[in-house]
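Reopening this one. Same input as before:
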Amino acid sequence: MSLFDWLRRPETTRAPRAARPALDAALVDGILTRVRAAPAGLRVLELECGVGVLSLRMAHAAPGCSVLGLDTASDAVRSASSAARAAGLESRVSFSVCDLRILSVADACFDLAVGVGVLSESAAPASTLREIRRALAPGGMALLYEPLALEEPAANAAGGMHHLRGASMSGAALSALIAASPFANAARLTAPESRGPGAYAQLVLLHAPHVKPH
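Same output, byte for byte:
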């Protein structure tokens, strides 16, 4: 199976209604499953990588892949870099401080971009989406999970919708953001079964390969 064939396979898994620890486990398992199934040489970009836990797990799951983790917090990046050295993975996993609005990466250099809460954390989510699209090689994919806000702000707080710094967005706002993005012709929004506490939206955004004219 080619890399593009793997990337374009349909993904219909819905994010479960669950407490944060269980939800996190489900998200991580879904990402690791894709990474393990990928052909050798997969180039992965993790956005808002924190202390690098997921980046390192992806590197362990697929010995042939390389991972770059980006985060806005320098202390998190230092911790992640130390963890990569301690694990003996510094040759395949690296970390850098980066503004989500302007990614410090070259064009078309990643096959897969992953992140949780990246758009709701960004000060300019439309710019972030354009940058993700720029960073992906033709045939690449972005797999993002975004916490969905409930209709009432008080319900968000009571329901535990406090991902990272409290950011979340409505399903309608998220759908509008995706529709206006460079991924508009190749995006699918898989909404959770419920808008209850802990609901996430799964975004599978495909960057279709360039097609040469006949």
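So the earlier flakiness isn't reproducible anymore. For the record, The two ends are 25 Å apart (CA to CA).
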